[in-house]
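Key result, reporting period 2: structure in, sequence out.
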């Protein structure tokens, strides 16, 4: 914003940007500034700083929605000031969330009658949904053990080592041991046979993933259900299944309707799905639905008598926005089954095209499967010259954000790049990406062979952020930017520990 202003006591007209006067001194980063500034200046200062963020539309690392129709954005903006938890004041919003829960429950074949209410709740994302589902399993298991007069202080949960980090959070926060089925080169999902082998009397549930975060592959829930039923019969246990359908829950029903992964399988007691992934809503909204009332222990439901009416709630926090719930309802009625189906088919077509383009370069092994979440995960055939991390870094120059990461145990030696195909990632963008990828490969192919590649590169990246820029001379006194970088890298180290930032 350029504003012409007259400097008092001078005849001169000075042209300056409104905010530059306020930005001349460094903006306070850690302490609240002493004085106020005009709203236009604050806007410009914040907006200018945000320009240095990546462009969400080019962020191919994320499953999370980055585009919605203007009509829906209008609805969202007009409800940003509604606190979702004030259900008595905003009964229509509550009603819309209930309709969404019912629509999702039916989509996942929950055994509810047409005029029956499904059991489920809207959450901030799949993470909260998973905490709630896990907690329900833990309480059900504890109650059963108490009835049997057996100890109930050592619960565990069985998953593949490819689980998303929120399962580790659940395990740590709610004191449940996480028993992970190890992966191996060539198989990057949980093997149902190995999972069932790890089940014991203290297992609160086996969690299967519909759409592994790392490769998009669907785990075989049907086989898991079969094997676990057999084991339950043999042992007299009652170990259930949870399906983490964060990304696949809005893919499978539309393009693989015959795939049995949901409540059609008797042991599946709860399912989570991210509304802000292929549910096509901006972050953050997720959903968890239970098979029936009996699968959600009554003791976890709070009945708050808030402002005059009984409101059953089962969420981890109290206040939150309403916009995402309203947006989810908009998408359901706007698109309908037909609309979702066509969008998902389109994503699948673009994924196929991108996969072929990437394979045609001759440099890569495709790691993702054709059936699954629309993404392409691929590894380098020859890692002696450069690594996938170098490719990821070079693509950044063109604006593309393509994450590179190593696989979990026991496949840590495999490093991949991953491109997630969202609704707005068009055919022409896919074309463009392949062109830029070829340029990057051409450049990198000129480099002399290097010795340290692969996994060591991950540590190098961490070291770099820790000690400032590579090769720079470190001043004794920390600059503000250095201090800030250290704060950022401290948090990054904590959050990157396992999944190196893919979400
Ligand atoms: C994204 C994802 C999560 C976490 O979901 P949020 O909605 O981001 O909280 C959990 N599990 C899987 C498989 C995921 O892909």
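The corresponding designed sequence is given below.
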């Amino acid at each position: 914003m350029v504003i012409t202003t007259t400097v008092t006591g001078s005849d001169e007209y000075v042209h300056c940007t409104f905010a530059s006067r306020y930005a001349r001194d460094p903006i306070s980063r850690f302490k609240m500034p002493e004085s106020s500034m005009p709203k236009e200046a604050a806007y410009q200062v914040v907006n200018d700083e945000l320009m240095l963020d990546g462009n969400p539309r080019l962020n191919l690392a994320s499953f999370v929605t980055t585009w919605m129709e203007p009509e829906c954005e209008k609805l969202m903006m007009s409800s940003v000031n509604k606190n979702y938890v004030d259900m008595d004041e905003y009964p229509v919003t509550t009603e819309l969330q209930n309709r969404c829960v019912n629509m999702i429950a039916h989509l996942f074949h929950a055994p509810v009658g047409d005029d029956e209410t499904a059991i489920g709740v809207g959450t901030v994302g799949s993470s909260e949904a998973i905490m709630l589902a896990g907690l329900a399993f833990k309480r059900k298991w504890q109650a059963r053990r108490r009835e049997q007069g057996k100890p109930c202080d050592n619960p565990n949960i069985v998953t593949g080592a490819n689980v998303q980090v929120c399962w580790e959070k659940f395990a740590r926060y709610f004191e449940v041991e996480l028993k992970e089925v190890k992966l191996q080169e060539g198989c990057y999902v949980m093997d149902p046979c190995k999972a069932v082998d790890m089940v014991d009397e203290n297992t609160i549930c086996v969690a299967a993933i519909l759409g592994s975060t790392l490769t998009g592959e669907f785990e075989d829930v049907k086989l898991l259900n079969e094997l676990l039923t057999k084991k339950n019969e043999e042992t007299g246990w009652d170990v259930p299944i949870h399906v983490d359908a964060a990304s696949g829950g809005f893919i499978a029903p539309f393009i693989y309707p015959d795939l049995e992964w949901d409540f059609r399988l008797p042991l599946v007691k709860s399912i989570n799905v991210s509304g802000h992934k292929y549910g096509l809503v901006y972050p953050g909204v997720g959903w968890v639905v239970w098979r029936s009332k009996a699968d959600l222990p009554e003791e976890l439901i709070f009945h708050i008598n808030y402002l005059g009416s009984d409101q059953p709630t089962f969420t981890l926090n109290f206040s939150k926005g309403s916009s995402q719930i309203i947006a989810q309802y908009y998408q359901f009625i706007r698109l309908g089954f037909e609309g979702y189906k066509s969008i998902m088919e389109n994503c699948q077509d673009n994924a196929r095209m991108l996969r072929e383009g990437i394979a045609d370069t001759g440099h890569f092994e495709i790691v993702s499967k054709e059936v699954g979440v629309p993404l392409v995960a691929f590894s380098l055939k020859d890692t002696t010259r450069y690594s996938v991390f170098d490719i990821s870094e070079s693509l950044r120059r063109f604006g593309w954000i393509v994450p590179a990461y190593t696989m979990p145990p026991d496949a840590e030696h495999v490093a991949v790049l991953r491109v997630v195909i969202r609704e707005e990632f068009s055919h022409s963008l896919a074309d463009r990406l392949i062109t830029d990828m070829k340029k990057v490969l051409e450049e990198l192919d000129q480099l002399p062979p290097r010795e340290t590649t692969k996994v060591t590169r991950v540590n190098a990246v961490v070291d770099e952020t820790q000690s400032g820029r590579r090769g720079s001379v470190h001043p004794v006194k920390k600059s503000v930017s250095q201090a800030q970088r250290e704060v950022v890298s401290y948090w990054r180290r904590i959050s990157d520990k396992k999944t190196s930032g893919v979400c």
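The chain has 14 helices and 15 strands. The mean pLDDT is 87. This case is discussed further under Risks and Mitigation.
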